[in-house]
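User: Can you predict the 3D structure for this chain?
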Amino acid sequence: MNKFEPEEHMEEISVRSVSAENDAYIDYRKLHYKNTMPDNRVLVFLTGFCIGMVFFYLSGGQHSGTRGLLDNEHLVLMQNFEADQSGLFEYVISLRMKQLLFGVICALSSVGGLLAFSMVGWCGFEIGLMIFSLVYQYGIKGIFLTFSMFLPHGIFYCIVFLILFRKYWTGNKKCCHNEETIKGRGGLKMEVVKTVFLILAVFCVGILCEIYINPEIMRKIALFF
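Assistant: Here is the predicted structure, written as structure tokens:
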């Protein structure tokens, strides 16, 4: 009876090794699938972008919000435009603080995930509509004009948005759950304080860029029209 035990032991080891290889292959497939599939946020944004494009063509370019706002007359005025930085600061800080407060309320609501993806889709819709409207008016130069309206401050506002709603993104749910289970209340409070500080810091940088850098970028771009 004992002489068969080594053979049974070897078979068990063989089965375990095959099972381990299968598990490793499954993990690899999941990782590969995750890396090759577009992010949900990207899919929602592109969907909104395509809807904006379709809306522009269905409307014949007659109902875009940029028509009349960035026509040739306004672009000529922008070439020699000197912004009142104190007045611009008051306007921007008032507008962006309201938007930040609205974002915080949405992030803390019970339907925060739905609101987050709705905002992503709406941004895609507006950007798609704006790009095609300006390209319709000015050709390829319209693309540069569109980007000049959002850079560089838009990058920082986008970071703030992603941080605010980070618990609703698919890739961060497991990570956030692990952090809450591992950390105690003290560590969780410290994490909240760090997050708030990071949001305010990035938000302030975005405001400064919008006031002092973006007007100059738009003025330089307007010189090409």
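The chain has ten helices and no strands. The radius of gyration is 26 Å.
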